[in-house]
Amino acid sequence: MAIKLDFDRANHIMAGANKKSSQFKAANQAMMAMERFVPKSDMQKQNRLRTASNVSNDGEHIIYTMPYARAQFFGVINGSQIRNYTTPGTSSRWDKRLIGDKSLMKTVTDAYVKELMK
After folding, report:
1. Is the pLDDT of residue 26 over 60?
2. How many C-alpha atoms does 89 have within 13 Å on its Cβ side?
3. Contact by Cβ (8 Å): 28, 60
């Protein structure tokens, strides 16, 4: 009895370009899901932190382009800990907030799998 194995579908799924595309889609979904945890301000010019972000070409990084993004992300300004985020539900390390929310994290993993299986 002969058995024929067809790995075409598996090879397609594991192709480098397909994985990069899936990673880019997942990073984009993560960026949208994390937006609710990113601090904002009532001042128009300072609200740009939520909107001034993009995904790197390889899909490995989410980049916040505002000069103060690093300080907000790590919660330290000039060596002092930020104690009061004025927007309810926001804090430093908004990536950890996403990871801790199972339903939001599921949207990210679903986007990855959906794109991978195309």
Report:
1. yes
2. 8
3. no
Enumerate the β-bridge partners of residue 62. Answer: 55
Handedness of CA 89, 94, 100, 104 (dihedral sign): positive
Structure token digits, residue 37: 């945890």
**What pLDDT does 89 receive?**
83
**CB contact at 8 A, 100 and 63:** no
Cβ burial of 50 (10 Å; 0-12, 13-18, 19+) is: buried
pTM of the model: 0.78
**Residue 104 structure tokens:** 């939001």
DSSP string, the chain: -------HHHHHHT-HHHHHHHHHHHHHHHHHHHGGGS---SSGGGGHHHHSEEE-TTSS-EEE-STTHHHHHHTEETTEE----SSTT--S-HHHHHHH-HHHHHHHHHHHHHHHT-
Average pLDDT along the chain: 83
